[in-house]
C-alpha cells in the first residue's frame, strides 16, 4: 500500500469516475485502475461495486474513506514539516564523559534550548571506549570526551582541559616529601574502568610499578567515595572535588612528576563536518565549557 494508491482512491470518490480521477491526477485511466486493483488486492477487499455503470463504493469502501483521508492528511503534514525543515532542528544523540556531565552539561543544555528550540539533545554518559564506539557505529552523533585512542576519520575540537591531581583520604597520613610513582603505588590505586582514558593516563604516569591492591570502578563519583574511605589513592579533577578537599574528606597529594591534566574534545565523524547542526552544537560547547583553554 502506498500514498499514490490511496490518493487515487479518494480522487475517484471525489470526482465520481475513474476517467475524471485520471484527468485530475494527470495520469492515464489504466494507471488509476491499476492502483486501485493493487490496493484492493493488498487489502483483500473490493472498494468499488463494479456491477454498476456509475462508480459506487462497497460497504467496506465507504468505511475505508475515513482512514484514507487520515492517511493523506498525515502525509501532507509530513511533507510540510520536513520538506523545508530548519537545518537547526531535530534530535542530536550526544555521548558525554562523566566529568562533563556533572560540571557544565546543564549549561550546555540551557544554551541549546534557548538558541535552538527545535533541537532535542539525547545524552548518554559513559567512558571513553564506549563513547568512541558510539561515534564509530553511528549510535552517537557527537561525543564530548577525552582524547580518543583512534582518531582516523574523526573531526576533533578541543573543549579545554581540567586540572587533575592525585588524591587520598583526608584522614590518611602521607609523607611530606613529593611522592614518586613507586611511593604512591604502595597505598593502592583506584582506577576508572579497565581501559578508560583516565586509567591509561594513570598507568602511564605510574610507569609499570607494582600496585598494592588495585581497585577498578567505572563511576567517578564512586571512585571519589572509595578514595575518601581510604580504599586507595586516585586521579581526580581538582575543581569538582573542591568541596571535599575543603571539608578535609580528600587531600591533594604532592607528587613528582606532577599529576597530568585531562583535555576534553568534541568528537564526531569527518563525514558530518559540513552539518550545520553539529557545527552549532560544537560552538555552544565552546561557550558552555568550564575548562581552561590550552595555548597552542
Highlighted features:
296 residues, alpha/beta, Arc Repressor Mutant, subunit A, D-Maltodextrin-Binding Protein, domain 2, five-stranded mixed sheet
Outline the structure in words:
- The chain has a five-stranded mixed beta sheet, sandwiched between helices.
- It has helices at residues 3-15, 18-25, 29-43, 59-82, 98-101, 105-115, 128-137, 181-185, 197-206, 220-228, 242-246, 276-288, and strands at residues 90-96, 119-125, 142-146, 154-162, 164-169, 190-192, 215-217, 234-237, 250-252, 262-269.
- The chain contains twelve helices and ten strands.
- It has 296 residues and is of the alpha/beta class.
- It has three domains: 3-82, Arc Repressor Mutant, subunit A (Orthogonal Bundle), CATH 1.10.10; 90-161 and 262-288, D-Maltodextrin-Binding Protein, domain 2, CATH 3.40.190; 164-252, Periplasmic binding protein-like II (D-Maltodextrin-Binding Protein, domain 2).
- Helix 1 packs across helix 2 (18-25) and helix 6 (105-115) crosses helix 12 (276-288).
CATH architecture descriptor text of the largest domain? 3-Layer(aba) Sandwich
**Helix amount, in percent?**
40-55%
Q: Unreliable segments (pLDDT under 50, ≥5 consecutive)? A: none
The assigned structural class equals alpha/beta
The whole-number mean of residue pLDDT values reads 91
Let me know the number of strands: 10
Order of helices and strands: HHHHEHHEHEEEHEHEHEHEEH
How far apart are the first and last residues' alpha carbons, in Å?
59 Å
Instruction: Briefly note the CATH topology name of the largest domain.
Output: D-Maltodextrin-Binding Protein, domain 2
Can you say what the CATH homologous superfamily of the largest domain is? Periplasmic binding protein-like II
Radius of gyration: 31 Å
What is the CATH top level name of the largest domain? Alpha Beta
**Main sheet summary:** 5 strands, mixed
Q: What is the helix tally? A: 12
- Please report which band the strand proportion falls in: under 5%, 5-15%, 15-25%, 25-35%, 35-45% or over 45%: 15-25%
Number of domains: 3
Amino acid at each position: 500500500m502506498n500514498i499514490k494508491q490511496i490518493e487515487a482512491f479518494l480522487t475517484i470518490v471525489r470526482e465520481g469516475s475513474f476517467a475524471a480521477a485520471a484527468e485530475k491526477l494527470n495520469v492515464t485511466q489504466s494507471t488509476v485502475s491499476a492502483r486501485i486493483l493493487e490496493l484492493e488486492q493488498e487489502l483483500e477487499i473490493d472498494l468499488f461495486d463494479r456491477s454498476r455503470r456509475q462508480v459506487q463504493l462497497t460497504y467496506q469502501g465507504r468505511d475505508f474513506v475515513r482512514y484514507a483521508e487520515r492517511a493523506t492528511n498525515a502525509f501532507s503534514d509530513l511533507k510540510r514539516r520536513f520538506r523545508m525543515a530548519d537545518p537547526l532542528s531535530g534530535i542530536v544523540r550526544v555521548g558525554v564523559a562523566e566529568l562533563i556531565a556533572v560540571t557544565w552539561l546543564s549549561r550546555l543544555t540551557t544554551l541549546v534550548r534557548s538558541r535552538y528550540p527545535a533541537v532535542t539533545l539525547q545524552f548518554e554518559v559513559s567512558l571513553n571506549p564506549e563513547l568512541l564506539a558510539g561515534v564509530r557505529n553511528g549510535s552517537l552523533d557527537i561525543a564530548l570526551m577525552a582524547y580518543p585512542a583512534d582518531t582516523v576519520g574523526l573531526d576533533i575540537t578541543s573543549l579545554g582541559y581540567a586540572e587533575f591531581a592525585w588524591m587520598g583520604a583526608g584522614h590518611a597520613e602521607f609523607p611530606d616529601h613529593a611522592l614518586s610513582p613507586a611511593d604512591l603505588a604502595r597505598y593502592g590505586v583506584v582506577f576508572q574502568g579497565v581501559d578508560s582514558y583516565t586509567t591509561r593516563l594513570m598507568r602511564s604516569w605510574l610507569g609499570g610499578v607494582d600496585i598494592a591492591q588495585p581497585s577498578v570502578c567505572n563511576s567517578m563519583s564512586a571512585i571519589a567515595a572509595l578514595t575518601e574511605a581510604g580504599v586507595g589513592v586516585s586521579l581526580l579533577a581538582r575543581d569538582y572535588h573542591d568541596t571535599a578537599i575543603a571539608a578535609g574528606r580528600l587531600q591533594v597529594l604532592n607528587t613528582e612528576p606532577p599529576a597530568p591534566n585531562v583535555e576534553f574534545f568534541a568528537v564526531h565523524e569527518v563525514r558530518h563536518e559540513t552539518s550545520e547542526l553539529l557545527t552549532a552544537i560544537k560552538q555552544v560547547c565552546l561557550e558552555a565549557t568550564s575548562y581552561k583553554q590550552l595555548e597552542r
